[in-house]
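To whoever is on call:

I kicked off a structure prediction for a single chain this morning and the downstream step that reads the tokens threw a length-mismatch warning. I double-checked the sequence; it's 250 residues and nothing unusual in it as far as I can see. Pasting both halves so you can look.
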Amino acid sequence: MTLRVHVHGAAGRMGSAAAKAIEAATDLELCGQSGRGDDLREELKASRPRVLVEFTVPSVVGANLRIALEEGVHVVSGTTGLSLVETESLGEFAASKDLGCLIAANFCLGVLLMQDFAARASRWFDDVEVIEMHHEKKLDAPSGTALHSARLIAGAAGRGLNQGRPETEEALSGVRGGQEGGIPIHSIRLPGLLAHQEILFGATGQVLSIRHDCLDREAFMPGILLGIRRIGASRGLVDSLAEFLDEPRD
């Protein structure tokens, strides 16, 4: 029996790629597609999916996910820009409906491994910064991936990072980037880029660079399919695809 999946944001680059990957998977059925201007609630009533895949924009993602959960549909979303409060609220609502709600900053398995390696490195290095680089049309900065990386690193370190530095005198406001968990994050937006991140750890006499480069949106498809297949067994918020990586590989 195939798993019925509806894609919202299907006209976008990520949504269209996800729809093609779902169509090509023998255990999944693409039962519906929708996007801007469509009534998502009515579309879900018509297509009757088990899982909604959502790739839209930050201004509408919260409302979209709540509609899906109200309609009894598990959620897999890759739209970044939700606040922690909004994310936690959606997770609580999903749990109340006995549904799973995966809100992933990144579906690329290489990125998840990069974050895992960085969390381990944080036990041994006291200084770290994050540089994230994306295409010029990305709406949010810093990226959800960079924010999630910084939070993971700070949590794994279990102590203050980047301590003991003198206060920087910025001749140009913002030149040192923003901070999350005491970790500076620098955002770059340029044509020619897709999705890239480098995590730099520094110590006396050495620099450890952990970098990932996504060169094609196809890199996200195995992770999206993994999320679709696993979310039905979850309840409440799943805030990273990494939670599924320790399970046996399909």
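Update from on-call: the warning came from a stale cache, not from the record. Cleared it. Sanity check on the structure: The first strand starts at residue 3 and ends at 8.
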